[in-house]
Amino acid sequence: MRSTLLASLAGYTGAALSASVLLSGGTIIAFDEDTNFLNVIRDGALLVTDDRIAGIYEEASPKGIPVDAEIVDCTHKIITPGFIDTHRHGWQTAFKTLGSNTTLAEYFMTFSSYAAGPLYTAEDVYESQLAGLLEALNAGVTTTLDHAHNMWSTERAEAGLDASIESGARVFWAPALDPTYDYSVPDQINDWKRWNRRSFPNDLVTLGIAYDGWDVGAPEDTQAVAQLIKDAKPAVLTIHWLGGVWPIDSSPSLVHSFGVLNTSTAVVFSHGPGLTAAQAELLRATNQFISITPESEMHYGHGHTFSHLVHEQAALGVDTHLTFSTDIITQARLWLQRTRSRLFDEVMHHWDIPSRNPSWCPSYFSPPGACSQLGTSLSVNQAFLLATRQGALALRRPDLGVIKVGAKADLVIFDGRTPGMLGWADPVAAVILHANVGDITHVLVDGKFVKRNGKLTYAKYAELVERFLASAEKIRKDFLKKPLPVLTGSFFGAEGYAFYGSAKDVDVVRGKGTGYGPLFRGADDKTTANVAAPGSRHDEL
Ligand SMILES: *[C@@H]1O[C@H](CO)[C@@H](O)[C@H](O)[C@H]1NC(C)=O
Ligand SMILES: *[C@@H]1O[C@H](CO)[C@@H](O)[C@H](O)[C@H]1NC(C)=O
Ligand SMILES: [Zn+2]
């Protein structure tokens, strides 16, 4: 009865009615607390009861299963924990494909909270947030830490919260308490306190806080946010940390100076190109994490020179899913290969030939020193942990991101016999290096199917698609009325440093000055035609 009620509240009228489900016959990528590492069980079974993993078995048809348990045949399938995205902005779905060549400096003037706010109504926020979270669920991302900077008014903020609750995803919804337009930090804090008192229809959504103004915000705002964190002890605080070439730097030591780094609140720093050995030590000492968003950091040019040196204090994130796919397996794969490429380059810079790939370290954390190469090595197993358990540790939720008895039943089931998967022996390599979203058959969150037999179970999806598309079209039209920014001088007028520099152009089509080509931004885009006639960026060459 209880699960039926919750399911229908979240729009899942047809979802799981039985309290127990036996996933029978698959290969399970479990986690073993004793060895502190992955444990692969072949032809096993996994029992889900209510919201938890109730049993893991080394045979497909174990004894003692509740008689009313629904049996789901998982023969030839691979069962993994749900993937965890530790950095994302759910409201941005409506901009999909419009940022295909944007840099971070341009982003601040196009798709950021500050630039995009005027384009969104509360309904727009709702459709984008819901469509985006369902996109994530379809991709096997069961937990999202949402840095919700759709903080333009009470109504537009709440629309993001309501859509998160409606989605059926596990969402750490962290509204960004940075001031915007007419929505001051004191007003936002009052709203936050009200949301914190509100009781949600399910426990999938957890209220957090995001705040970026540690160095650049008004001192009284920063003090007020720090006080709120100390008083209310939210489960999570998340912060965009740049530094490096960027003249904004909400570093761990700065946040620590406000007394909010070393408390019960999990703190997740996104990106961190300004990472230094001292900052890494502080992350380790306070057990806080960075969120590496490999694709966004490469796409936009944030930089992430040292992130691979702190893998023990790192998890993965997608960030702006408007610009690329939303699945964490792609992020894990990109980061694995990015890290290898970088480490191989270091060998080749000495004119040496890389002999071995840094490989699996069986004693992940202990004994200390056993994995002295830990920070610089990366195997498929470690990429898998970054995509799952590390995200859970970043959120201080040891009951997520792992398959073990008692953990939350957030699960992803891959079809091991699609054309792309066929022939695997190592299930971890299959998932990290061969799988795509189309190979995901089922997804469960909190023991309920949110994707089943390759389709989202969200009952009102067809209606949402129409509403979302209408909203996205309207937003796109308004967006395209504004010319693209032309960046000259320095970043927001910074003096002394932070001058803009140009990356080298490379061409694909033969011939002199073949140019960048236009961006195909939609039928209503009147700017496309004149923006990039062939050769326009190369006339000087
Ligand atoms: C964090 O807090 C713990 C316990 O209160 C304390 O022992 C430790 O020294 C603190 N660490 C830092 C870096 O402040
Ligand atoms: C993106 O493409 C457009 C159109 O071709 C061009 O005007 C713009 O300069 C490009 N931006 C970057 C950062 O390459
Ligand atoms: Zn971000």
TrEMBL record:
MF terms in GO: deaminase activity; metal ion binding
Cofactor(s) needed by this chain: Zn(2+)
Protein's UniProt name: Amidohydrolase-related domain-containing protein
Record's signal peptide: 1-18
Higher taxonomy: Eukaryota, Fungi, Dikarya, Ascomycota, Pezizomycotina
All residue ranges annotated as the Amidohydrolase-related domain in the record: 78-149, 377-450
Lineage top rank: taxon: Eukaryota
Keywords, in A-Z order: Hydrolase, Metal-binding, Signal, Zinc
Alphabetical list of Pfam families matching this protein: Amidohydro_1
PANTHER family documented for this protein: FAMILY PROTEIN, PUTATIVE (AFU_ORTHOLOGUE AFUA_4G00460)-RELATED, GUANINE DEAMINASE
GO cellular component assignments: cytosol
